[in-house]
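During the reporting period the student researcher (J.K.) took over the structure-prediction task from the postdoctoral fellow and processed the backlog of single-chain submissions. One of the processed entries is reproduced below for the supervisory committee.
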Amino acid sequence: MRGRCKILLIHGVPEEQKEDTAAVVEKVVTGKLTMQLSGADISRCHRMGRSSSNRLQPILFKLKDVAVRDKVWFAKTNLKDTGITWSEFLTKARHEVFMKARQRFGVTKCWTREGNVYVIGHDGDRHRINWLGDLNTIVKCLCTLW
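J.K. obtained the following structure tokens:
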């Protein structure tokens, strides 16, 4: 996850023919988040996967500075009701853990921060989950409490 700390994904942005993805990212950040981001802040930017007419491909972009990344990341609350969302670029294993946690605990009680997955359990406590075994342990511990 250390190599992915400056990378974010944007979901829900319509795709255009021969688009400049860095310009699209700048437009979203300056327009929706009302903050300044220039092309000099972005080290690389591209769409993930193959182009498809029935599904929007996320835009992966890597920022040069962690401070700028954090500023953009924490401004994501301004994207409510726009159809556009941010996510962290998690490894396959952590993404799987995150999706399983969302299934078990609900979308509103799961989040990621700096590549870690966090869950608010049925006991009301916050738990950090690193792998599926941690998730199973939390569920088992909570079942014994009830």
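The committee noted the following: The mean pLDDT is 82.
J.K. will present the remaining backlog at the next meeting.
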